[in-house]
Amino acid sequence: MADEARDNLGAAARIVREPPMKRILIVEDVALNRDLLTQLLEDEYEILIAVDGADGVDMAIAHRPDLILMDLSLPLVDGWEATRRIKANATTSAIPVMAITANAMSGDEDRARAAGCDDFMTKPVDEDLLFAKLQHWLG
């Protein structure tokens, strides 16, 4: 009986905890886009959702995600201003912000980077490119 208990203890001691999932905040007002990103990412990442820029800033401060996917055309506070606020806050300034936007006009990427975005993607989302960028920022 003692040997059996020792064997069970040995098995229990070998249990290894997996590291916690990286947390991604998706700031997107269009439900279809939110749902698509969530479906793509939820198996590998913990997902937080904000539907406008003001909520995105508040959630970034409250939850400190590992990365933020930021739409730029948002109600209340647009993605450019939300990014500026996130980058101006000492609690959230180091969080990478990736703009994901339908704005693909000349100068939009430069404008997003000037606001503080660390990376930029256009919609529709290229899944392979998205996962490559996530690997770059989150390891």
**Which CATH architecture would you pick?**
3-Layer(aba) Sandwich
How many individual helices? 6
Give the topology string: H per helix, E per strand. HEHEHEHEHEH
Overall mean confidence score, pLDDT: 90
Give the oligomeric state of the chains in this entry, treating copies of one chain as homo and distinct chains as hetero.
single chain
Helix content: 40-55%
Strand order of the largest sheet: 2-1-3-4-5
Number of strands: 5
Number of domains: 1
CATH superfamily (homologous) name: Response regulator
Give the termini separation: 46 Å
Decide which structural class fits the backbone.
alpha/beta
Overview of the molecule:
46% of the residues lie in helices and 17% in strands. The protein has six helices and five strands; from the N terminus they run αβαβαβαβαβα. The protein has helices at 2-13, 31-41, 53-63, 79-88, 108-115, 127-138, and strands at residues 23-27, 46-50, 67-70, 97-101, 119-122. Helix 3 (53-63) runs parallel beside helix 4. It is globular and about 50 Å long.
Task: Show the helix and strand layout.
Blueprint: H1 2-13, E1 23-27, H2 31-41, E2 46-50, H3 53-63, E3 67-70, H4 79-88, E4 97-101, H5 108-115, E5 119-122, H6 127-138
Parallel strand pairs: 1-2, 1-3, 3-4, 4-5
Helix pairs in contact: 3-4
Organism: Methylobacterium radiotolerans (strain ATCC 27329 / DSM 1819 / JCM 2831 / NBRC 15690 / NCIMB 10815 / 0-1)
Protein name: Response regulator receiver protein
Domain Response regulatory: 23-138
